[in-house]
Amino acid sequence: MSQTRNNLLLLLFLAILAVVSLLTRNLIPVDETRYTTVAWEMWLRGDFLVPHLNGEPYSHKPPLLFWLIQLGWKLFGVNEWWPRLIPFIFSFGALLLVQQLGRRLWPATEASLMASFITLGFTLWAFFSTTVMFDMLLAFFVLLAIYGIFQAFSEHSSRWWLLVGLAWGLGVLSKGPVIFVHTLPLLFFARYWLPSRTAVTWKPVIAGILIALFIASIIIFAWVIPATARGGEEYAQSLLFGQNVQRALKAPNDALAWWYYIAFMPFILFPWAYWGGNWKALKSNVSSTNDIDHGRRFCLAWIIPVLLLFTFISGKKVHYLLPVLPAVALYLSSLLTKKEHHGSNREMWPLTAIYLAIAVIIGSLPFLYSPDDPPYWVHNISIYTVIPFLALAIAGQFFVRGGQLNRVRMISLQTVILIIIAHFTIFIPASQGYDLRSIAIEIARLQEQDLSIAHNGKYRGEYHLLGRLKKPFDIVYDHTEQEWMNKYPDGYIIGYRYEQCGEQQEPVEYQRLFRNGQCVTIRTSAQQKVFLENRNKEKKGQKTND
After folding, report:
1. Do 323 and 182 touch, CB atoms closer than 8 A?
2. 518-524 vs 492-497, strand pairing mode
3. What is the tens place of the pLDDT at every residue in 207-227?
């Protein structure tokens, strides 16, 4: 298959994912709803320097994603589909960069074609290709910087450092300085991965790095300086230190043990960790003493330092390793293109078994949970959902012909189909607790009447874009809401409880299921007072019984 046809097939796989995602699920709280709400407030305020959430400066993320959303809204009007197409566009761009890297590392093989499909075939990559988050933007700019670094060393040309600087600058505006964690190790270990260990002339390299850093600094500070000046001291402190140094040393919410990524590696590397073809190729590579060419050394210099650094960084989430997956794909593709690795359908059996196991688990969920136990939406799952999983397993096992490239494409297609099935079997049933559009519309109705509205607890932007809300909420907590209710006796309070919706006896203006077991409610100040009185009585009664 030609490169053009290969790219069209990649685009088709991604497009199918995007269309199904748009048609079967809404924005997922709290991440997608939060980031689109920040973009919505940027749109309302016309302030493109300092992002805001609920009327307050939002320092947790840099602005590039929000700017891109504004661009689409300027062209197409405010909508919810354009933000979800942005990661799709950057995912496809990243796959093309993977392909270009593969062509330069192993020009006489099919490694470039295979690597792009292996990258897309990672379940983690495929899912985040349609998710409104910053990680796919970061992955693209990491790949762009790495491509520039490789070309700069290979061609001994300073012009490639301009590309590196551009990628670094835009990468920082995508998700902060973490792009340097992903790219600098390749500079430090250049003598390891270059074809000739003595090929490095460090003077022009250092000059090129300085040029790249200069360009990156111009891009970064063109936003940071005016943004921190407008946002104030607290915003500047949080942006420059709290969201970078603090997260690296001691993340408040994501601090996990050093072995976190090791424990989740079977999931991060799904499905390729379960394909026999990879294990056969890896075994052959280990047994060969002269098999680590400069391309594989390049991949190892990319993977190992990043994995070690993230192991000891405090904040950890599985998608933080998303930009490393192309390196894994490139390494595997180089092994799979060796002549002795023709492969067979027997190598598909472990994956077939996993998909069959998933079918059994998904089909059993409605019988494993009591109707009174969360998550309540599992009872909306049909037993017939096992059929697509069975078809998926059979297709991979019995309908693959040809060499390893065809098997790689089939496994990649299986990943696409797996996520499509997940949308129909999980996302649609779960929309009972995760689709917040109806409550957002109800809040919009109250705001149009110019009524005072408070949100009990930290607000993460769940409602503002969905309801096109134009005013921020007052934020209250258990110890301050009484004061607010006294001040606004005609106001409304958005609150959350862990009882199943409809079971409480107190009057409520509006309620619906939220997430797995919570119930989100809208009460008038008077209704909230009744609710609090009854709750306090229950607590006193429990203490008396104890």
Report:
1. yes
2. antiparallel
3. 999 999 999 999 999 999 999
Co-location of 401 and 441 in the same domain: no
* Residue where a domain stops, chosen among 379, 402, 434: 434
Q: Is residue 18 part of a domain?
A: no
Supply the pTM of this predicted model. 0.92
Asked if residue 441 and residue 428 are part of one domain, the reply reads no
The values of phi and psi at residue 266, to 5°, are -60, -30
- Domain with 532, as residue range(s), is 437-545
With contact defined as beta carbons under 8 Å apart, do 433 and 514 qualify? yes
Rounded to whole angstroms, what are the CA distances from 390 to 18, 238, 362, 415? 23, 50, 12, 14
Going from the C-alpha of 513 to that of each of 71, 367, 427, 438, 446, the distances in angstroms are 34, 21, 15, 11, 20
Which residue, among 494, 500, 528, has the nearest Cα to 515 in the 3D structure? 500
**One domain for residues 476 and 410:** no
Q: Which helix (H) or strand (E) holds 523?
A: strand 518-524
Q: How far apart are CA 105 and CA 335, in angstroms?
A: 12
Based on the fold, state whether residues 425 and 374 are members of the same structural domain.
Answer: yes
pLDDT in tens, 61-114: 999 999 999 999 999 999 999 999 999 999 999 999 999 999 999 987 888 899
Instruction: Tell me whether residue 261 is in a domain.
Output: no
Do residue 388 and residue 462 come from a single domain?
Answer: no
Q: Do 466 and 541 have their domain in common?
A: yes
Q: Is position 406 within any domain?
A: yes
| Position with higher pLDDT, 525 vs 108 | 525
Asked if 448 and 520 sit in the same domain, the reply is yes
Domain count, the chain: 2
Q: How far apart are CA 186 and CA 306, in angstroms?
A: 10
Residue 424: closest CA among 472, 462, 461, 392: 392
How large is the C-alpha radius of gyration of the chain? Answer: 26
The letter for the amino acid at 237 is Q
Q: Which of 402, 434, 466 is the last residue of a domain?
A: 434
Short-list 251, 237, 187, CA closest to 59: 237
Does 56 fall in a domain?
A: no
Amino acid code (one letter) for 127: F
Concatenate the DSSP letters of all residues of 184-204 into one string: HHHHHTHHHHSSSTT---HHH
With b for 16 or more beta-carbon neighbours within 10 A and e for fewer, the 216-250 pattern comes to: beebbeebbeebbeebeeebbebbeebbeeebbee
Provide CB contacts within 8 A for 206, sequence distance 6+: none
Counting DSSP H helices and E strands in the chain, the numbers are 25, 7
Measuring CA to CA, how many Å separate 260 from each of 45, 235, 272, 431, 509?
40, 31, 20, 30, 43
- Residue 450 and residue 414 share a domain: no
